[in-house]
């Protein structure tokens, strides 16, 4: 009997083959091709952050990707990226198209430029939203979950629709104005991670509408920004399940800042997010609350090879119930599901121009960002305090 190779092995083999074929780089100057491959080990104690079954050391930390861009005309460029991911229980395993777009420079002058993006564009509204898809461009393997929620990775990375960017140089500094409108597909696996292991219906995103502005003062090493998000979702229940059709709305306001110097970098993002749920448990059930969160992160560059990172990340699911006491009193769900705080230390060593190893350790209090998000897994995630560590080796060209 012929043994069939598992699908995930086929996907990884195919992407690695593509990487090897494109490695020498494209012959035409109009083409640019890059790729990356990373593998790591990770362990989270006493919960399902990495694995649904146990908290043993896991190798579910694989990222392989290839991206290309083609300068078709002086003002029109096409770009795309295909990746294979295995992050355990953090998001769905498998291949996906992260972005596939047309970048059209509508107008440009000596001190300003206007670009239009059509297709599956990348989210450029947050500090790391446009670089989180490539391992060596992230400050850590696990990003601050208050903002960069892994369960929502594919939805937050990009959308199918239209985006505009306008950059303007002035006497007082540089301004970036960004706007986007689109939708993101949500898989069955993501539905389970978001709602419940017993949910068998479908989630559709009606739209996500974002706008942001970034400002870099003239002669300064600081950058300041604000971003706005409005998004609607719809849940279509399966006729065989106990849940009902539902509508949900997410509205976020976020402030951010970043400082860069030769040896220091500081980054922070602060947000408030209103989440409104109508339906699901019963046709008439509704819930409206405001979550708040922030992280503050510092990096010190000893030299071009070695970097130290320290970060504190805080998420409160309900700003009026920060320690979850009302959550436990009203629902019986342990109070520590109402928040999640994370202190992280990390070290990155770039031992070659295109090779890097990254290690980090996290101390968590609370489980408010563990899957599933709507109906918590109280049996598996039964520890208020827990730790996580990860080591990841990365290569790119």
TrEMBL record:
Gene3D superfamilies: Porin. Residues 1-27 form the signal peptide. Keywords: Receptor, Signal. It comes from the Bacteria. SUPFAM superfamilies: Porins (SSF56935). This is TonB-dependent receptor. It comes from Thalassomonas viridans.
């Amino acid at each position: 009997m012929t043994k069939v190779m598992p699908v995930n092995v086929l996907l990884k083999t195919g992407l690695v083959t593509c990487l090897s074929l494109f490695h020498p780089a494209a012959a035409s100057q109009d083409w640019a091709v890059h790729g990356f491959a990373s593998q790591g080990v990770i362990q989270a104690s006493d919960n399902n952050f990495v694995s649904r079954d146990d908290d043993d050391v896991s190798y579910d930390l694989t990222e392989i990707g290839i991206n290309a861009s083609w300068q078709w005309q002086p003002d029109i460029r096409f770009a795309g990226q295909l990746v294979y991911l295995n992050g355990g229980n953090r998001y769905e395993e498998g291949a996906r198209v992260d972005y596939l777009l047309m970048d059209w420079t509508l107008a440009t002058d000596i001190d300003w430029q206007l670009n239009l993006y059509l297709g599956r564009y990348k989210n450029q509204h947050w500090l790391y939203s446009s670089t989180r898809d490539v391992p060596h461009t992230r400050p850590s393997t696990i990003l601050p979950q208050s903002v960069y929620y892994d369960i929502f990775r594919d939805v937050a990375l990009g959308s199918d629709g239209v985006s505009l960017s306008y950059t303007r140089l002035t006497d007082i500094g540089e301004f970036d104005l960004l706007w986007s409108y689109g939708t993101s597909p949500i898989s069955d696996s993501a539905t389970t991670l978001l709602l419940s292991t017993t949910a068998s219906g479908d989630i559709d995103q009606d739209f996500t509408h974002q706008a942001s502005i970034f400002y870099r003062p003239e002669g300064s090493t600081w950058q300041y920004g604000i971003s706005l998000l409005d998004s609607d979702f719809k849940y279509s229940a399966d006729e065989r399940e106990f849940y009902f059709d539902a509508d949900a709305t997410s509205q976020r306001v976020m402030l951010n800042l970043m400082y860069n110097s030769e040896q220091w970098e500081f980054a922070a993002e602060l947000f408030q997010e209103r989440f409104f749920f109508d339906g699901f448990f019963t046709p008439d059930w509704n819930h409206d609350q405001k979550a708040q969160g922030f992280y503050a992160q510092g990096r010190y560059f000893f030299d071009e090879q070695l970097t130290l990172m320290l970060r504190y990340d805080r998420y409160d699911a309900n700003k009026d119930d920060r320690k979850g006491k009302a959550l436990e009193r009203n629902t019986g769900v342990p109070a520590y599901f109402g928040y999640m705080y994370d202190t992280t230390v990390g070290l990155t060593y770039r031992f070659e121009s295109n090779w890097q190893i990254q290690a980090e350790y996290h101390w968590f209090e609370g489980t408010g960002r563990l899957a599933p998000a709507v109906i918590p897994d109280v049996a598996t995630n039964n520890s208020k305090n827990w730790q996580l560590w990860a080591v990841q080796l990365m290569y790119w060209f």
